[in-house]
């Protein structure tokens, strides 16, 4: 198959997927392209990967706490000055 046709078909298929499928496709392609560099990721269990990805999604959605806020809470809790 001609490379340009493969690219065209891939673009068309990607345009038709929902957002969850798009995230999965992105993960597959990214993992494939950087395979060998993500050895730590490869040894994680599916549960660990799922929790990490959920945390990243929550962070991107603005649901996390900033490092500044966390540091303030820890300093207040333990009476740390500075």
Q: In short, what is this structure?
A:
This protein has 82 residues and is an all-alpha fold. The chain has helices at 3-15, 19-33, 39-42, 46-60, 67-78.
**What is the first-to-last residue Cα distance?**
64 Å
Mean pLDDT: 88
What general outline do the C-alpha atoms trace? elongated
Main sheet record: none
| Low-confidence blocks of residues | none
Share of helix among residues? over 70%
Radius of gyration: 20 Å
Number of helices: 5
Report on this structure.
The chain has 82 residues and is mainly α. It contains five helices and no strands. The longest helix is centred in the N-terminal third of the chain and has 15 residues, at 19-33.
List keywords for this structure.
82 residues; mainly alpha; 0% strand; elongated
Strands, helices and their partners?
Elements lengths: L2 H13 L3 H15 L5 H4 L3 H15 L6 H12 L4
